[in-house]
Amino acid sequence: MRAVRYDMTRQDVMERSGCGKATSSPAENYQLARRRTLQVVVSSLLTECGFESAEKATVESLTEMIQSYISEVGRCAKAYCEHTARITPTLSDTVVTLNEMGFNVDTLPGYAKRSQRMVITAPPVTNAPVIPKALIAGQKRTHPSHIPSHFPEFPDPHTYIKTPTFREPVSDYQVVREKAASQRRDVERALTRFMAKTGETQSLFKDDVTAFPLIAERPSSIPYLSALLPSELELQTLEETDSSEQDDQTDSENTPVNNLNDDPGADKENSVLLAGSVVPLVKVSEESMIDNPYLRPVKKPKVRRKK
Amino acid sequence: WDLLGLEIDMNRKKDKGFETPLFLNVLTCYVMFIPHTTHQVVCINNINFQRKSVIGFVELTIFPTVVNLNRIKLNSKQCRIYRVRVNDLEAPFIYNDPTLEVCHHESKQRNLNYFSSAYTAAVSAVDPDAGHGELVIKVPSELWKQGDEMNVLKVYIEFSLDQPKGGLHFVVPDVEGSMAERGAHVFSFGYQNSTRFWFPCVDSYSELCTWKLEFTVDASMVAVSCGDLVETVYTHDMRKKTFHYVLPIPTAASNISLSVGPFEILVEPYMHEVTHFCLPQLLPLLKHSMSYLHEIFEFYEEILTCRYPYSCFKTVFVDEAYVQVSSYASMSIFSTNLLHSAMIIDQTPLTRQCLAQALAQQFFGCFISRMSWADEWVLKGISGYIYGLYLKKTFGVNQYRHWIKEELDKMVEYELKMGGVLLHPTFGGGKDKDNPTPHLHFSIKHPHTLSWKYYKMFQCKAHLVMRLIENRISMEFMLQVFNKLLSLASTASSQKYQSHMWSQMLVSTHSFLKSISNVSGKDIGPLIKQWVDQSAVVKFFGSFAFNRKRNVLELEIRQDYTSSGTQKYVGPIKVTVQELDGSFNHTLQIEENSLKHDIPCHSKSRRNKKKKIPLMNGEEVDMDLSAMDADSPLLWIRIDPDMSILRKVEFEQADFMWQYQLRYERDVVAQEESILALEKFPTPASRLALTDILEQDQCFYKVRQGACFCLAKIANSMMSTWTGPPAMKSLFTRMFCCKSCPNIVKTNTFISFQSYFLQKTMPVAMAQLRDIQNLCPKDVLNFILDLIKYNDNRKNKFSDNYYRAELIDALTNSLTPAISISNEVRTVDNLNGDVRLILEEITRSLNMEKLLPSYRNTITVSCLRAIRMLQKNGHIPSDPSLFKSYAEYGHFVDVRVAALEAVVDYTRGMHRTSPSEVSRTHPIPYVVHKILSMLGKNPPFTKAAESPLCNEALVDQLWKLMNSGTSHDWRLRCDAVNLYYTLFGLTRPSCLPLPELGLVLNLKEKKAVLNPTIKPEQGPDTTEMTVSSVSMSSGVAPPPQGLKRKLDSVVGPLGSSSPEPGQVLQEEDTSKKFKIRVRISSEDEIDMESPHDSQAFIHHHLNILERPSTPGQHPVKHPALIILLSDNLEPPAVDQAVLSLPVTPLPSSFGKESTSSSKHSGDHHHHHHHHEHKKKKKKKHKHKHKHKHESKDKERDSHAFSNSPASGRSARSPSMSD
């Protein structure tokens, strides 16, 4: 089954590519023609250098390199020209560019006139690709009077004007509550269903065990912990509602434990509840003054010392 | 008797005194000598959580008050005693606990009267107050002379405890990690004086001594005990710590406690001498819950004008607690479930009340102890009374009066149902025949024979009587009396023993009354006679007529003093009459023959001017008087408004009077009474009055809660004429729903607690509404469903778990029986639409609980109840398996109890569908207690009704449970007795065959009797109950059906290697073999034992006193057996239970069994000492022989039990020589 499917997709791809070749766009044709010319150039250069044959991949790589070189020259030249507030690059732009890229321009005429150069046919004439018209949405703004008309036109209004794409949010209390309630219910239902589907369940009906599935109870070794400690969710709420009130109260009662009890869990729990409330140093010294027998250090056995 | 005694005495001499430590000689111990313990050292140097065992020693400093003290009796149960030394001399001792097995070989006797008297006698036989005890030590003769010089004796006892079932409770969670990481802990517990369960002592509240307590525990643990922690010292290997406590204040052994665990420690910030302990991770909860304690301290110290008597106070919060609160000298042990966070509303007052109770008992109960059991009421009364004062101060007068009414009603209801509760029983000459409470099925002579419920009512009555005394002598004098008691006691406590002052620390009824009369100069004799020396309550019926001509109110007050639980009252009674011109108190004299009382009215009948009406509290209010009788100036009348008589009043007055009373009387008790009365007057006027109360913010919230339910009832009675939306719906909408969208409830804030409680209650009451088809109106159901749907707690700083739970309860309340097509199986498809919605909610809530559990799992509890209700009403198939799984060990205790309640309910409802009964063991005494009391409350059948469940097997099972299965816990035993009483009554259960005359049993007949108990285990399809019987004498519980497989692995090899008798019955299964073999052995005994049972009956008392038993042979080794009905399918709980069965005793008793049976068959049973002794009288010549065997056995036995050399006088245990 899977294999067949795979085949089908492959076929699909092939068909598509075939289609592409048959009805390639003018822009693609244009580019292909130029690329071919570049390949020819590369091949001739290789011949010039004395190579008799080259791997296709090599030619392809070199073509790619030459293409990027030429593109870079073009891009830079264009940049130089725009830098000087012009729109068409001049020879000097190109020269500067080539120099900049580490090419000695003076060697160029000599190279052009070298004896063993091969003549290549010009690339086939193809129509220059038509730049597809941008989607025009709305009326373009005309230049205001202080801007000369040769300046570029304004872009489409949608590119700079805020266009609201959402509806006014419902602020009706009833609807909000309704939504919140049903959302919560849906989440809860989905969650519990999921848990029931993925885990063990108990059922209330014998005929249809999937109706009203109950997540199977799981005895815990220390059942009182989960039953007494507030869940994280509740703790969050508590922190949100009044974190400031709590701090004052609990601060002073916080420390004595840590002296004797080295249970890391306890400390963690503490820090969770009292997140953000740093015990001031003064408190610590106060605590140490508390004389409670359970906080006193444990004595070493006496007998050993005698020994 | 004398003759026997003499003979035995002579015997003893022949045997060279106490050579055989197990030799019991009770008859010679008639001489009463009560030596006084002045100081006791308890040292527990090893607590093994893995094995649940404890090793230690005690040293009692005894001050002989008689010359020639030759025997010392101490209390000890469960403990294995290795050696006893008196002043460094080895001393022989005898250990005999007659309460282990109450009735001996009474396979035929199944009547409760017999049991009760036997049990009472057994408890009396070891009653420390009478100088008795389970452990009798013979003072070496070398020391007798010392006795002449009255020198102190030091009694040193080495003991150990292995898997204790009572006294100490080990909680060892089954998780990874060290014991400290697992949160394993152990604590002492018990009902009344139960300290003897964990160390030998004089277990009496009246025997005071000073204490030195030492506990060596793991370095990661803390040992909390009574007194001051002097120091904590590491052991040499630095792995353990020894906690040294000193308690210089003379304290009864019964007030000594211990808890050891990896506790987190919190020092009370306001009072550094107070320390709180809780289990790991709960510290934040502890901080919050304890933040209030100092105020309670301040309150008590202020009213008693006396400082807290001990130099420190400790609170320990433990899991699986026996009771919510138990107080011991300078410490209290609480259930960890009392802890709560700041988000919890409902638990907060409850926890504070528990703290206040504990602290009140510190003053009266721990510091001041009682002279005897008969004086218990004084202590319970005072501590309950001052706790009431605390309630009044903290929660307000309304709450206080509401509480008093509640307690009074509860107590009155109990007394009327069960017969009176007697506070101060006096026993004429100690003879059983003068039973002051013949109406009860148990004796009140000892705290340990009391039913738990009775004891609760006893406490209730005690504090109510204290309140009556206060009414009589004023609170000021009352507090002076308390102060006097306390200051006398504290003076005494600092004295040396020799000054004979310590008895000042004991309160007796006599001394209490004397100090009342000294302080107040008033004679409260009649009051005491009426309520303390006499049981029962007063029942009044009142009615009145208004005589217009004479302008007189003719009040008639009748009494019912003939029915059970009632007594006649003669004396003053207060009547309050609210008239138009004001409220007037009248004190009438209730006399022998006068029923009618004329009360002149102050106001003329019709007022002309409209003016305000003055109330009792001075307030003047406008009333709409159009409802009242134009001829009468009476608004309402109240009889005994201050509850100064322990009574029930049924008073008749017109509905409008009740309505006026509800609206305008400011006393919450009056309001609650009128609410109750208005149920009988379903009129629009009542409806209006109730609605007005509901809306009134000033009104006490509990009254408003009550009004909700009353309104629901009225609405149901007025169904046909009811107009408008369902009762309370518009009210709820107005109070709790959004203004803009009345169908949506506001988001929760719970800022006003009064509103919160009302908001919780109203839906529950509304769900009780019914329409003409007797269904819950669709409106109401949708309304409740909407409440659940729109419930939003996100912005609330309080948890809404109780609220949500009550909404589920509301859904439960809305359920009505399904229209049943006969015997149709309930399926999903034929589920009614509304029920489907309800079930949807319940399922979702229950499932959400697994992901986000609520505090105390309140929602799970409500959901379980709802599911049971759905089952009960036939909406979904009735099936207990769900509940059984929730009842397993490992769920939160509230959940377990709720689930068990459902299972109990199931047994009641479904007993026709052939359930079989399965015995289960639960490691938590509280849960077992709950099961038994729930079964008692909701019995599957009663003595009146026929039931297929009522059969011989069940009788046997229950009998064994109370006879020997529950010897480790007084409360459980009494629960079992209660249940037996509920099921079968006092006399022999009717389902049993008639007893053979003379009770001569031979082997054949015996078999016939036993057969039914074996049968049900053979086929799962029988309708009989599976009985797990306790084989009393051998200390082995034959496993019930479900347990067999499991036990096999433990017992199997031993069982199969065990000798033959079992094979006589040709059972394939080894475990069955094992079981039957045990039976056979007991048959043998009986066969040999009781040729003349009538004779045995005559020697009944003798037997009880004469039942020796080595510590190793306790049936205590069994966990309690619990009867629960279930299907033949074994719930996993049983497996769990089996695993928790202490397995060690089984093999050991087996070993013993096999060694004994390897001897000739006559000796086969010789470890059952009581047989021996009974026989002894007949065949004295056999004595020596037997005892030798016995001692050998004992040695072997103890070897099997523990790693320490254990025979009576052999070397010290390795752990001690450390």
In short:
Chain A is mostly helical.
Describe the protein's architecture and organization:
- Chain B: It is found in: Nucleus.
- Chain B: This is Transcription initiation factor TFIID subunit 2.
- The complex is a heterodimer of chains A (307) and B (1218).
- With 307 residues, chain A is an all-alpha fold.
- Chain A has a two-stranded antiparallel sheet.
- In chain A, helix 2 crosses helix 3 and helix 3 crosses helix 4.
- The longest helix of chain A is centred in the first third of the chain and has 28 residues.
- Chain A is elongated, with a radius of gyration of 40 Å.
- Chain B is of the alpha+beta class.
- Chain B is built from 37 helices and 33 strands.
- The radius of gyration of chain B is 32 Å and the shape is globular.
- The N terminus and C terminus of chain B are likely disordered.
- Classes of the chains: A mainly alpha (307), B alpha+beta (1218).
Report how far apart the termini of chain A are: 84 Å
Strand content of chain A: under 5%
Q: What integer is the average pLDDT of chain B?
A: 77
Number of strands of chain A: 2
Helical content class of chain B: 40-55%
How would the global form of chain B be characterised?
Answer: globular
- What is the C-alpha radius of gyration of chain B, as a whole number of Å? 32 Å
Taken in chain order, the helices and strands of chain A follow as HHHHHHEEHHHHHH
* Backbone structural class of chain B: alpha+beta
Q: What is the arithmetic mean of pLDDT of chain A? A: 74
Please tally the β strands of chain B and state the result.
33
Q: Work out the helix count of chain B.
A: 37
Find the structural class of chain A using helix and strand composition. mainly alpha
- Regarding quaternary structure, what we see is heterodimer
- CA(first)-CA(last) distance of chain B: 49 Å
Rg over C-alpha atoms of chain A, rounded to the nearest angstrom: 40 Å
- Order of strands, main sheet of chain A, comes to 1-2
Helix content of chain A: 55-70%
The best one-word shape of chain A is elongated
As laid out across the biggest beta sheet of chain B, the strand order is: 5-4-8-2-1-11-14-13
InterPro entries (chain B): Aminopeptidase_N-like_N_sf, ARM-type_fold, Ig-like_TAF2, Peptidase_M4/M1_CTD_sf, TAF2, TPR_TAF2_C
Domain Transcription initiation factor TFIID subunit 2 TPR repeats (chain B): 655-1009
Pfam family, one (chain B): TPR_TAF2_C
Region (Disordered) (chain B): 1031-1071, 1147-1218
